[in-house]
Each structure stands twice: as C-alpha cells, then as structure tokens.
Write a structure and sequence with these properties.
The complex is a heterotrimer of chains A (about 300), B (about 325) and C (about 600). Chain A is about 70% helix and about 0% strand. Chain A is mainly α. Chain A is flat, with a radius of gyration of 25 Å. Chain A starts with 5 loop residues before the first helix and ends with a helix. In chain B, helix 3 packs across helix 7 and helix 4 crosses helix 7. The N terminus of chain C is likely disordered. Classes of the chains: A mainly alpha (about 300), B mainly alpha (about 325), C alpha/beta (about 600). Chains B and C meet through helix 5 and helix 12 of B and helix 4, helix 5 and helix 17 of C.
C-alpha cells in the first residue's frame, strides 16, 4: 500500500485485534475438545474440561479406530467424496452457467424450478420409495447420486457467473468464441475462488454424510466411515439405555467405556483428513486467481 | 458502486448467421442444463407426490390413495394453544440468526481481506473454520462443561472463590442471545469463505485507482468491497428466508433439550412437533406441518424476491432469485 | 431425533405407572414363572415340528423341507442392547438357521440392522420394504402403526403354534388384545411394578452408623446427614428421568388409599381415580389422589439444597450416574434399585471410589406391605408382524418363534449366542461372561425386546440374593391385586391431535415440577391451565364414554374381577398392611 495514514494504521490494528480475538474464540473450544479426547475418562468426569490433560490416554481413539471396518469405511468415504464432488461440481456448474446466461430465455423459470426444491419436499417416505424404485439402494451410488444437486450451491455459482464482468465475456464472443469455449476458457478460470469454495463444501458434505448410508444401505457389505462411527455411539448409548431399562441384567461395566471422550475423538478423526487437505484448497480462495491475472 | 458493466453493441453480422449462432448456443445451454434438471426432477420432484398424505388419513392398505380428510392433519399445529409462541420463536430466532450471521460473516471477510500478513491471514481463516465441524452434541457438552450450575468450570471457579454462582439454565431471556452467538461462532468461518471468494475476485486495479484518488482503507471498503458483496448478501439472505419457518432442530434440541424453563423463548415449531409426536408415527400430521412451514416460507421468499427485484432493477441490476 | 427419547419414554411410562399405581392384573392368570424355575424341557423341541392343528390358514410345517430355505427377516432396532454390528450378529443368525434346518424347519433367519431406528423403522412399513417382523411397543410406535393398519393381527394363527402359547401363556395372550385383535407376540415376565427405587452410598451410611433405609423418610435422615458431613457432595442426584418426582410411595404421613390406573397409558394429564370403585371415573391429574405428593417432595428437597440444580440439563452422556460414580452425589432414583445397585451401578462407582458401595431399596415398599398395587398382565413390549408381506411370510415368522420357544437350547442360542464363545452356560439357569470378551460387541439379545418371556433368560452368576428375591416378588401374581379394567384399551385415533398437544404441554410443565424447580401450587396451576388449553377435558370425556361403554359390554367379567380385587385389597389391609402399621406406628390412620 502506498501512503499509510494514521487512520489506516488504526484501522489495520483494529483488524488484527478483532481477527485475533475471534480466532481465539473459535480455537479455545476446539482445543478443549481435542484435549478432552485424550484425557482419561475418569479424570474427565472428575475434573471437567481442562487446558492440559491431567491423565493422557489414547483410549478414545482406540475405541473409534478399532476393527477393520474403519479402514474400509475410510476407503468408501474417500471414493464417495472424490467421485461425488467431481460429478456434483460438473453438473452444478453446467446448470448454473446456463442459468447465468442472460440470453437464455428459460433462465428464470429454471431458477424457480431449482429453488422450489429447497423449500418443498414430499417427505421422507415418498423419497425413500423413489430412491428404491430408481435403484439408489444398497449400492455405492445411493451415497453419491442423492447429493449431486444442491440448490444452494447452484445459486451461489449462478450468482458468481452472473457478476463476472460482462465486457470480457462479450469481447470473447465477438472474437468468435462459442458458449462452451467461453465457459471452459474464461468463466471457469475466472471463477476459481467460488469453484474452490463449492468443491470444499460439497466434499465436506459428502465426507460428513451419514444420513444416506443409514437410510439407503441395508444389506450391502460396506458402510461409509460416518455410519461406522455412528454405530459406536449407538452401541454405547444402547448399552446405557438397556442398563436402566426394567428387567435388564447387563453386567457390562459402563465406566470402562470412555463415552465422553469418544464423542470428541470422533470429531477429530473425521475432520483430520479435511484439515490435511484444507491448506491446499485454501490458497484458491485466499489468494485466488484474480481478474488481473487473467487480463495480464 | 458496481463494476462498470457497459454492454457493447455486438458487431453487425448477417441476420441468418446470428440466428443460427443463437440456436447453437441455446442448444448448448440446454444441453448443459438438462442433465442437472433431470436429476433434480428425479430426486426432488418425483417424491413430491407424497404431499397428498398431508390431506389424508394414511392407511396401510390404500397407501397414498388413502381417504381424503381435508385440513384435519393441520390441526395439530394450528389448533395448538401455543401456536403463537411457536411461530414467533421460530421466525424471531431465525431472523436473529440470519441477521447476526450475515453481519459477522461479512465483517470478518472484510477484515481478513484487509490483513496483509499472508501467514496470519491463512491461519485466522483456517482456525475460524474449525467450529464448523463440531457437532451440536459436542458443542452442547462443552457448553455444559463451562456453564453448568453444579459442575461447570465457571461456576466451580466462582464457588471456590466464594462468589455467588450464576444459574444460566434458569433464565429464558438470555438464551436467544446465546443461541445466536453459538450460530455465529459455528458458521462464521465457513460463511465468510463465500464472501472472501468474491473479495479476492475483485480487480486490484479498482483499489489502486481509489487509493490514488486518496480514499482511505475504510472508504475503499465502503465504496468498492461492500457494494460488490451486495449481490451475494442478498442471495444468501433470500435463500435463508425460504426456510424461515423451519426451526434449527439439531441445535435447539442439543443445546436446550429438556430445560423446560427455557422453552418460552426457545421452543420452535420443529421441537414442539417432535415432542408432541414422539411416540406416534402419523406421517399425515408431520407432512402437514412441513407443508405449512414450506408454504409460509414460500410466501415470504416470494415477497422478498419481488421487493429485491423491484429495488435492484431501479439500480439497473437484478439480484433476485428468479 | 435422539434415541434418548426411546429410553426416556419407556422409563417415563413406567415411572408414571408406579406413580399413579398404573398397574393391573387378572386373577385368572397363571403366575408367570420366576427364572431358574421350569425352563421348557429341551425335548419339547420336537413339538416344534409337529403338525399344528388343521385350520383354514396354511400350515407352516408343510413348507418343503428341501430346496432353498425361506428367508425370514427380523428388524433389529439397534438401541435396545444388542450390538449393532454384522460381525456380532451374523454368526448367530447362521447358527440359528443351521440348527433350525437340521431340525427340519427350512427357514433362514436374517437380521436387518437399523442405525437410526427412530426414523427408519416406521418408514419401512409405509414404503413397502420387505421384512417379516420387528420389535415394537405401545410406548414406541405400535399404537399408531396399528391404527394405520401396518400390523398383522395374529389371533387366528395362535392355536397352530402350541410352543408360543405355552411359553407366553394363554392368560397373557388374552390380556393383550388391542381393539379386538392380537397385534403382536407379547413379551411377559413381570406382573408388578417394582420399578421406582433409590440407590445410595452404603459405605457412607455405614460410616454414619445409620440403619438401612426402607422408605423415603429413612432416606431423608441419610440425605440430611450427607449434607451436614460431606461438604462437596450433593445429597441426591437427579436428571430429567431419574429424579425426586420419579419415586412414589410412603413419605411423611402419606400412604396411598386409592388405586389409580391409566388404561393403555392412553390418557395424558389425567387417569382413572380409583380402579377399585364402581363406576370408575377419569379425573384430571390435579384431582388425582397423591398427584402432588411427589412434586411437593421434589420441591422440599430442592429447597433444602439436597438436589442438584441442573436436573434438566443432564442428558446424552451426562446422566445422573456421572454424578454418582465420581462421588458427587450420595443417592439417586433408579428403577429396580434393589436389584441393580449391586449388579450394574456398583462397578461404575468402584472404578472411581474403590471403597464405595452401592445399595438400593424399592421405595414404594410393596414387599414390606406398605402398599399394594394392581398386577400387570398387559405387556409393554411386543414382536409385531408386517402386514404388507404375504401371509406365508408371517406364518414362517411365527413358525420360527414356535421353534425357538420350544427349547431352552434354542432360546439360549438366540439370547446369548454360542456357549463357550459368547457366554458360559451354568447350572440353575445362570450364565457367566467369558473373560476377555468385549461386552460391547459380544452378541447378546435382551429378552424384553426379543420376544422371549423373561423366565427363559439366564441370570448372571453375580446376581445377588437381593436381586433374586426382588425378581421372585415382582413375578408372582399373588403379591398383586387383579385389575378389573386391564382389558379396556381406549381408542385414541379420534383424539390424536389433542393427545399429541397434551403430550407436549404436559412435558413442558411437569418436568420442572418433578425436578422441584418451581413452587408446587404455581406449577400445578400452570400445568392444569396448559392441559385445559390443550382440550384435556374433551379427551377425558371421550375416554370416559368409551370406558362406560366397555363396562356395559363386559359387565359380568368386570364385576367379577372387581370383586376379587376388592377382596384381595381387604385381605392385604388386614394382614400385611396391619403388620406394616404395627411396625411403623407413625404412619397409622393414613391408609
């Protein structure tokens, strides 16, 4: 920046202070959670959440990661996330681009058609019946296809495409570029930040999805990671419930199960891979390719 | 102020060639749109036949062709003695959430965008994203761990210091604020990414030109960045308004749960309905409630979309959804 | 939606049951066996393959014994104590199928595991997903699934399956008709509610040199002592289910004189005032005898500082046991406290406090003679069959149960898995866990959700004398009065929306009362107003009409049972209760 006036300096300091404070507010609970996930179960109950584990243990992680199922779960989830994100982004970009083209007459009815599904749904039974009828049941596509089209991101993409400077697109058109060429050569490169953002959120949605695994897989012999982990929670809860039910003679010692820290460990285990991938994606929306770069 | 959007007149060409070109382009656009539209039809529109059960007495033997009972299923919500409170809480909380989230997300995006230090900028942004991944169940456990009257860190500290403990879970009036804070805390990191994506796409020449004109950084934000964020802000708000009658069940159930003392300000349509129908499985009633929430939300979004259209068209833009 | 509700709901219903004396009986029923007595002889397995009596329904045993076995699918709503893992369940399913086929029954048993049963289970019916049977219950989804026609009535098939009838008993079957049909196989065992009780720190009690508490007045002395002596301890820990309001029974001068009953658990915010009076009357909960006793006690203890203030915030992984185990509270309410204190709670306590000892007692004190209750023959848990499947599918499922209930070996395999791998079979209907086997993934099915009457489930070897004594008491019909109204099942479909609104209103205002957080008078007024606003009185009038009609239709049976119940009550009053009053003169003149 050229001239740094006093007010700019104050403004800058203010920015750093606010950002630091807010970051701390976001960090402390997360940190507490990570610490809780490695704290011995009895210490956790006795002393509550601490800033340093009074008794360090990885038992919660051993619980979450035990068995072969977790490894296959990771494989299934990675496949679903990669395939799903790629397909979803392709289909949504194509539709959003068509919707953003001002010459495209049916763009408003289509926008309405897409938006309508965000508010109205038929309910869970007809949805389940439809999924079974079209074969999205007990196979890997049941985890991918139902989440391909997300109206929210279609609109975000359309909006971004809408707001690209028309002059660039027009000049390309005058140079004889087709719509497809404009899309692949100009629109998409210019939209890297929003594409990266969409890809990030779509892949996180696939990664975190347990609902479709739970609803649409019954006898298939694979499960995504989230379902496997859900079962661990269900199992512990089931034992606890069964214990206090009349007529129960459960002899399992619940205090041997790190129920509290398992919840925390699960968050760490599931977001671990995302945290690893995140910095690579981040550069696209933190230092995205800018207009200037294209123009230059 | 918006980007200078002067649409140049296309060079004159033969009318026939122009038509052909348009047709080809149009076909291409249709080809791009159709796979997605078909998928949406299959995944979202086909199941909508199920809405009929909102007006039926659902019976196993006749399924979706069960006897028609008019609006009887709607009584559960609309004849409830607390329907006023539920609607007020649902809309009130959602409006509060939308407002707070938008303001904070936009501000944080602008602040991060102003931070020059590359490493810090990335770090801030990454850390703010973390709460997004924490489930409400975990958030509720941490909240309990700090604010609980008996075992919460805050109150045990107060007690050991010989001070009066604070009973957070007794005062319904502070909870809309706490819930809004939690929503902001959880969603800002992810919400500001969208705004950042817009901000990093802005031509730096615009800033440089303004700087040369002597605009301070604050002025540059007001005059360049903020106007460019307006379409996105409006879009995201419009998208949220459609679901304004749907309460955030996942959060409210996890955080408030059985604390009945807090229900006067936090009980929303979804928590009430699930509580009322906890051991029945009347799909007619639950579909009727969902349909009511959708229709009301739809009316709201239709209205606000129309206002947006009129308002933005006066400025020569179109920020509306459809 | 959280599965917590499931358990809460179940406990709530049972808690309410004991609180208002919601228990029932019939003199004509044969006493259900206590465990360790009369397991069906293994030789009876042969009975499973005998041709059932010929009727118009197809004969299940005529199914071809060669060729592909017929697949029967059981929907396991994970969440009731069986591990939700294929690895745990498949070997047992295979073993069951093989045993069945080797005994000439050509069926293949298959389990469908649900990871979110609360949502998915009801959808299975409406979407036409094929399965044979599932666990269900009136406190779960059974009533509304029944009203919508998803459940197959079974009464016409029962006489073809002698082993089922023999195991469950004809009397239990007779008492579980709903609206004229038998909609599932009832799972019976207990005939009386011994549910509400208290678990307390025995080691502290011994330290103070106090005698073992027998009722809530004794307990108060203990709680006061804890408050005085242990500075950092809450005397009584409570959560949204196991709280002060959960317990019923003698407290101060109060001994119940009436025997309230809520047929089918259908009414919300009211019930029948006294099942021993004729004609019986529905009353609002504020007018029921003893309605506010539990609330007054909750308030009293709360104001004395004996109860934790975060009663309603304890949930998910933070239940009241998290207060008890690390020694933050000295007592808590629990169901079957006398049985469970040593069996299930003590290990948790000792993992924190090695010298800690947990003991429990049943507060209402029917065993001591302080009260008498109606017996319960109407069951809470059922195996229900999917009406969307062809009839032969249901028959195959029933054939499975007929085979299963025909021999103790089959039942052991179904409930405990493989002897030597999943459990160790011991004599006298006991079992032992195998050292080194992980209890959380080890195969186990609980009798109360598996369709096996409780007397056929083995008892853990560490079961104490106390446990066996309580079990024997609550499974013996002679200890209870027959309930003249038990066969009455209100039709709730006509008031479905009102009942749902009542449920919501009742929860909102009764939770703080049970927790002791609000003034009783004020809280009751609010509760009553909310219930009245939700048209409680309309619903009550409707149920009263149905009840009057039912009594008119079943006059002779009703009056005969009523007579028996009144006789039983007089007997009890003159013998057991007289003894109790002699031992507790301070309570005299109250019952």
């Amino acid at each position: 920046m050229i001239n740094r006036t006093l007010s700019d300096r104050i403004f800058s300091a203010f920015n750093y202070i606010v950002a630091t404070l807010f970051t701390l507010i976001c960090f402390i609970p997360f940190y507490t959670m990570v610490i809780a996930s490695v704290t011995e179960k009895r210490a956790l109950i006795r002393f509550g959440y601490q800033f340093w584990p009074s008794q360090f243990t990885l038992e919660a992680y051993q619980w979450v990661l035990r068995g072969q199922a977790v490894l296959t779960g990771y494989a299934v989830t990675v496949f679903v996330t990669l395939t799903g994100t790629l397909l979803s982004l392709t289909l949504m970009c194509a539709l959003a681009y068509a919707m953003s083209n001002k010459k495209f007459k049916p763009r408003n009815p289509i926008a309405f058609y897409v938006y309508f599904t965000m508010i109205f749904s038929g309910g869970i039974i007809p949805w389940f019946i439809t999924m079974r009828a079209v074969g999205l049941y007990d196979n890997i596509w049941a985890l991918i296809v139902p989440m391909l089209m997300n109206p929210w991101w279609i609109f975000v993409l359309r909006n971004y495409f809408n707001n690209l400077p028309t002059e660039i697109l027009e000049s390309a058109r005058i140079d004889g570029a087709s719509d497809l060429q404009i899309l692949t050569r100009i629109v998409l490169p210019l939209s890297t930040p929003v594409l990266a953002t969409t890809a990030l959120f779509v892949s996180v949605a696939y990664w975190n999805d347990w609902w479709h695994g739970v609803m649409l897989l019954d006898f298939a012999d694979f499960r995504p990671l989230q379902v496997i982990i859900l079962r661990i929670i269900n199992n512990i809860r089931a034992i606890r419930e069964a214990m206090s039910v009349p007529g129960s003679t459960i002899t399992i010692d619940m205090s041997q199960i790190p129920a509290l820290s398992i919840r925390m460990a699960i968050v760490v285990v599931t977001i671990g891979p995302i945290i690893l991938v995140y910095p690579f994606v981040q550069r696209y929306f933190i230092h995205g390719l800018t207009l200037g770069a294209i123009k230059g | 102020m918006a980007l200078p959007l002067k649409i140049r007149q296309p060079a004159k060409r033969s009318a026939a060639r122009e038509l052909l070109r348009n047709l080809i382009n149009y076909k291409l656009l249709l080809a791009l749109a159709i796979p997605g539209l078909l998928l949406i039809f299959m995944l979202n529109y086909v199941p909508m036949f199920g809405i009929v059960i909102a007006f039926e007495d659902f019976r196993a033997e006749s399924g979706f062709l069960s006897p028609f009972i008019g609006l009887k299923n709607f009584e559960l919500l609309f004849s409830s003695p607390v329907v006023g409170r539920l609607v007020a809480n649902t809309i009130g909380l959602n409006a509060l959430f939308i407002t707070c989230e938008t303001i904070v997300s936009v501000s944080i995006a602008l602040i991060i965008n102003e931070i020059g230090h590359r490493f810090l900028r990335r770090m801030y942004q990454s850390i703010m994203f973390l709460p997004f991944f924490m489930s409400w169940a975990v958030v509720s456990m941490l909240l309990f761990g700090w604010f609980d009257y008996e075992v919460g860190l805050l109150n045990t500290t107060l007690r050991s210091a010989g001070l009066e403990r604070i009973s957070f879970y007794d005062d319904p009036n502070i909870w809309p604020g706490i819930l809004a804070f939690l929503r902001v805390w959880k969603s800002t990191g992810s919400g500001c990414i969208l705004y950042l994506a817009v901000l990093v796409g802005i031509d730096p020449q615009l800033y440089e030109a303004a700087a040369i004109d002597g605009a301070s950084r604050l002025q540059r934000i007001r005059q360049i960045s903020l106007p460019l964020l307006v379409p996105t802000i409006i879009l995201l708000t419009l998208l949220s308004i459609g679901r304004i009658f749907y309460g955030d069940y996942g959060m409210i159930y996890a955080i408030i749960g059985s604390s009945a003392a807090l229900w006067p300000t936090t009980d929303v349509i979804d928590t009430y309905i699930i509580r009322a129908l906890q051991s029945t499985t009347n799909f007619g009633m639950s579909t009727a409630v969902g349909l009511s929430q959708s229709v009301l939300g739809f009316i709201c979004v239709f209205g606000s979309n129309w206002i947006t259209k009129k308002w933005s068209q006066r400025r020569g833009e179109d920020y509306s959804l459809f | 939606m959280s599965r917590k509700i499931t358990r809460r709901q179940m406990l709530y219903v049972i808690g309410m049951g004991t609180a208002t004396g919601l228990v029932s009986a019939c003199q004509s029923a044969t006493p259900t066996m206590a465990p360790a007595t009369q397991p069906p002889a293994a030789t009876e397995a042969a009975g499973a393959t005998e041709a059932p009596k010929a009727t118009e329904a197809p004969q299940p045993t005529e199914a071809p014994k060669t060729g592909e076995p017929k697949v029967i699918t059981y929907v396991d709503s994970a969440g009731f104590g069986s591990p939700p893992y294929r690895e745990s369940q498949d070997p047992i399913a295979k073993a069951l199928s093989e045993k069945m086929q080797s005994e000439g029954i050509n069926l293949e048993f298959r389990v469908m595991l649900l990871d979110n049963p609360k949502e998915k289970y009801p959808i299975l019916y409406a979407s036409g997903t094929p399965f044979t049977w599932a666990f269900d219950a009136p406190w779960y989804f059974m009533n509304s699934l029944r009203d919508q026609g998803h459940l197959r009535p079974l009464e016409t098939y029962m006489d073809q399956y002698p082993n089922i009838v023999k195991a469950i008993s004809q009397d239990v079957i007779d008492f579980n008709y709903q609206l004229g049909h038998l909609y599932g196989l009832p799972t019976g065992f207990y005939v009386g509610g011994g549910a509400s009780g208290v678990v307390y720190r025995k080691d502290l009690l011994d330290k103070y040199g106090m005698p073992e508490p027998k009722n809530l007045d004794d307990l108060e002395l203990f709680l006061a002592e804890v408050q005085k002596t242990e500075k950092d301890m809450i005397p009584f820990g409570a959560d949204d289910t196991f709280n002060v309001g959960y317990m019923s029974g003698p407290w101060r001068k109060w001994l119940p004189k009436k025997h309230g009953y809520n047929p089918g658990g259908a009414m919300v915010g009211g019930g029948i005032d006294d099942g021993l009076t004729n004609p019986p009357k529905y009353l609002g909960s504020e007018d029921l005898e003893g309605a506010t006793v539990a609330y007054e006690r909750a308030r009293d203890w709360y104001e004395k500082g004996w109860v934790n203030k975060n009663v309603l915030q304890l949930k998910v992984e933070q239940t009241v046991e998290e207060l008890f185990n690390p020694g933050k509270c000295a007592a808590l309410a629990y169901n079957e406290a006398a049985m469970k204190a040593e069996l299930t709670i003590q290990p948790g306590l000792q993992s924190f406090i090695p010298e800690g000892k947990a003991a429990g007692f049943a507060v209402e004190g029917p065993m001591e003679g302080a009260t008498i209750q109606f017996s319960i023959l109407k069951q809470w848990n059922f195996q229900v069959f999917n009406s969307h499947m062809p009839e032969e599918d249901t028959l195959a499922g029933l054939q499975f149960f007929n085979w299963l209930l025909g021999s103790q070996d089959n039942i052991d395999l179904y409930l405990f898995g493989i002897d030597g791998t999943n459990y160790k079979k011991l004599p006298d209907m006991k079992y032992a866990d195998i050292e080194g086997v992980d209890g959380t993934t080890n195969y186990r099915r609980r009798w109360y959700v598996a369709g096996v009457p409780g007397q056929f489930e083995r008892v853990p070897e560490q079961a104490t004398e106390n446990f066996m004594k309580t079990l024997a008491y609550i499974t013996d019909l002679n200890n209870y009065m027959p309930n003249p109204l038990e066969k009455f099942e209100p039709e709730r479909k006509v008031k479905e929306a009102e009942l749902a609104q009542l449920t919501a209103a009742s929860k909102e205002f009764s939770l703080p009362l049970a927790a002791g957080q609000v003034d009783v008078k004020e809280g009751m007024d609010k509760l009553t107003k909310a219930l009245k606003d939700a048209k409680r009185d309309d619903v009550m009038a409707e149920f009263q009409t149905q009840l009057d009609k039912w009594i008119g239709d079943n006059k002779s049976e009703y009056e005969a049972t009523l007579k028996k119940a009144q006789t039983k009550y007089e007997d009890w009053k003159n013998t057991k209760f007289a003894e109790y009053i002699k031992a507790h003169p301070e309570k005299a003149g109250t019952a």
